Amino acid sequence: MKEKRNKRWRLIADLQIQGRLSLRLGIYWIACQMVMVATIFGFAFLTNSSGAGAAIFPALVASTLFLPIMLLDLIVFSNRFAGPMLTLRRALKQLAQSNSSEEIKFRDGDFYQDMENDFNIVRRKIVAKSDERSDAPMLSSLLPSLEINSPLGTEQNV
User: Fold this and answer.
1) What is the pLDDT of residue 114?
2) What percent of the chain clears pLDDT 70, i.e. is strictly above it?
3) Is residue 1 part of a domain?
4) DSSP class of residue 50?
5) 3-11: long-range contacts (C-beta < 8 A, 24 or more apart)?
């Protein structure tokens, strides 16, 4: 039988993390463009050359065309840690609500493989404890009913 591969079907697993990383990449790209322009003009000023303007345009076009490639690579790469965190967060929420959840399995190449194993061990322990509690007879049914005489002379069952 063919083993089903655990594929992540969304490019953006966690918009909060991956969106912030993408924004940060954009800010770095703009800063890089500013440094590049300043370097070209600074070099032109120091060498008294007049061809600085001609060098800026091709450099800006090339780096602008390269930006979507960098952004896509960053999103795909960040999916390797954002996806497992999303999976772990969902499993923890389910475990907290119902004392049971499915074991988690991260994709090959994802980060936090050791955390997957640790979660599954803890999950098994919690499920086993929960099963022990539900299988154990109620404590109140094990205790005999005690009769206590109150000072007022009435009997009370406890």
Assistant:
1) 92
2) 77
3) no
4) S
5) 5/107, 6/105, 6/106, 6/107, 7/107, 8/79, 8/83, 8/107, 11/75, 11/76, 11/79
Residue 157 included in any domain = no
- Give this prediction's pTM: 0.62
Q: Are 90 and 84 in contact (CB under 8 A)?
A: no
**Quick check: helix, strand or coil at residue 156?**
strand
State the residue range of the domain holding 51.
15-134
Split into its structural domains, the chain has a count of 1
Q: What is the amino acid identity at position 5?
A: R
> 151: burial class by Cβ within 10 Å (0-12, 13-18, 19+)?
exposed
Per the domain annotation, does 4 fall within a domain?
no
- For residue 142, being part of any structural domain is answered with no
Cα torsion angle, 13, 19, 25, 29, sign: positive
